[in-house]
Each structure stands twice: as structure tokens, then as C-alpha cells.
Amino acid sequence: MPSPVALQDFDAVLFDLDGVLTTTRTVHAAAWKRAFDDFLDGWDREHGTHTPRFDDRVDYAAHVDGKTREEGVRDFLRSRAIVLPPGGPGSPPEEDSWWGLGNRKQLLVEEELERSGVEAFPGSVAWVREVREAGLKTAVVSSSRNCATVLQHAGIANLF
Questions:
Q1: What is the residue range of 51's domain?
Q2: E-state strands within 91-136
Q3: Whole-model pTM?
Q4: pLDDT in tens, 15-47
Q5: Residue of 16, 55, 65, 96 with catalytic role
Q6: Choosing from 9, 11, 18, 56, which is the catalytic residue?
């Protein structure tokens, strides 16, 4: 069936990064799990508690997906009845604060991208190429601070 969208009616097409062009969910989920589980190990030792660990399916969707890192930290910790100070953008990764844990997670994402890379969805890449061959401009719109790095690791930075 032919597409109801006529490419000649447009000048450019904007693409989202996470989940549309690339499979970054696994990278982010693994980094969140490591950051939270490491934090909870220390928390439980210090407080004599047994806090449920981060579930990369349930907790990812419920508490961190689609949010800023700081909001994700705050919401996950609230789900475990843990209160930490917010900290600030310059909080070191070892600081137990929203920003500190978020900055720790960011370092883990960077490590995971270097170690494992990230895949691009073949169908999305094929469509981006088709759009470009039709003469349209392409761009990625993302709130991810890792956008350029992810595009590089996925091998598709040249398409945008």
C-alpha cells in the first residue's frame, strides 16, 4: 500500500532518538540498575534494611523512563521510602543526592556505550536514507544529553 505521506510536501523530517532510531533502553536500564543497586547495597548496610533492588522492567517504566535523571532518582527513591537531598548539577557521582546518583548513572551510561555500543533500528535507518535520497533534510530531536555520542556509537551520525 502506498504511503499517504508525500515526501515532496515536506522540507525536513525530525526523528526521535531513543526507541525510534536506536535501542538505548537497554543501555539506560542497565546503568540505572547498577547505579541504584550499588546505592541500595550501601544504604542497606548503613541502615540495617533490605530494600528491594531496581527492577529494570517495572521500575524503569514506572519511575525513570521519560524523565530527567534527577526526577527519576527522586521518584525511584520515593518508591522505596528513601529521602535524599536534591544536590545540584555539580554534585559528584559519589554524593548520595538526586543529582549525585543521576551523575553516577550518566558515567555508567558512558561506560556502557564504550563497552557495548548501541544498535540502530534497521527499518528506521532505511527510512531515514529514503527520506534523504528524496532530498529532504533530517534531524534528531532528543532530550538526551548523550544524543551525539549515541548517534556515533550506532554508526548513523552521518545521516543527520
A1: 25-116
A2: none
A3: 0.84
A4: 999 999 999 999 999 999 999 999 999 999 999
A5: 16
A6: 18
